[in-house]
Amino acid sequence: MSDREPAKRPRGRPPLPREGQRQRLVDAAIRVFDRTNGEKLSVADIVSEAGMSSRTFYDHFDTKEDLVAEIFASQANRFIAELMEIARTTRGPVARADRALRAYCELFPAATIIDFERLGGAAGERVRDERRRCVNLITDGIMSEIERLRRMGVIATAPERARVELVVTGIEGLSIRYYSEGRHAEFVKLQPMMRELLLRATGY
Fold first, then answer.
1. 84-137 pLDDT, tens per residue?
2. Could you tell me which of 192, 144, 149 has the C-alpha nearest to residue 171?
3. What is the pLDDT of residue 160?
4. Pick from 122, 145, 121: nearest CA to 198
5. Are 135 and 195 in the same domain?
6. Do both 56 and 132 map to the same domain?
7. Among 120-134, 163-177, 189-203, the least confident range
8. Long-range pairs for 139-145 at CB < 8 Å and ≥24 separation?
9. Which of 81, 113, 144, 192 is the most buried (most CB within 10 A)?
């Protein structure tokens, strides 16, 4: 029989990787935003929801506004991934447009509870950069699909990129304004109009 004692297992949860900590804070902030509409939100609210410390928060974010910018970026990335899946699995331009618009309305409310137009400094600039990136990626995806259909002979000619980008930019900008004004339901009702504009812009 060995005299050596078995190694003791450390108590408690294993430490969360740094990236996991950051995502937990983002997810917690989204839940708190959803409950409070972003009013009188504090770092204390966020860390309490996440079960983390204020010190951990400031290891990842300089300010609450910086975290808000991260939320927008996170939601934008999720929407882009969803849009690619819709293009891959959905047949027909009308069905694709409808699914894409529904996904946009479902994913972006949590990212637009805060009035991004009022964010200043580095956080505001970051949100503006993410908005431009999101519009460009959506336009890229639409143009790629149009080119694929043109090669298949489904459509005769592809529209100018600026035409598509103008409509996408308009929808994105309108959503930010409506959501920040608490008019999400009104924006959702505009889906048929937005679908018509998208289809016209893409040549259908």
1. 899 889 988 899 999 999 998 887 655 555 556 566 667 677 778 888 988 998
2. 192
3. 93
4. 145
5. yes
6. no
7. 120-134
8. 139/164, 139/165, 139/168, 141/80, 141/83, 141/84, 141/87, 142/168, 142/202, 145/87, 145/96
9. 113
CB proximity list for 106: less than 8 A, separation 6 or greater: none
Q: Is the pLDDT of residue 4 over 90?
A: no
How many CB atoms are closer than 10 A to CB 17?
Answer: 9
In this structure, are 73 and 128 located in the same domain? Answer: yes
- Domain of 41, in residue numbers: 15-61
35 to 51, 64, 110: CA distances (angstroms): 17, 17, 10
The answer to whether position 44 is within a domain reads: yes
pLDDT digits (tens, 9 = 90+) for 12-21: 444 566 678 8
Number of domains in the chain: 2
Calpha distance 204→196 (Å, rounded): 9
Q: What pLDDT is stored for residue 8 in this prediction? A: 53
Which tokens in the block code for residue 114? Answer: 């805060």
- pLDDT by residue (tens digit) across 145-157? 888 888 988 888 8
Is the residue at 2 inside a domain?
no
Q: Give Cα separations from 107 to 27, 80, 102, 162 (angstroms).
A: 13, 10, 9, 25
Is residue 139 within 8 Å of 168, Cβ to Cβ?
yes
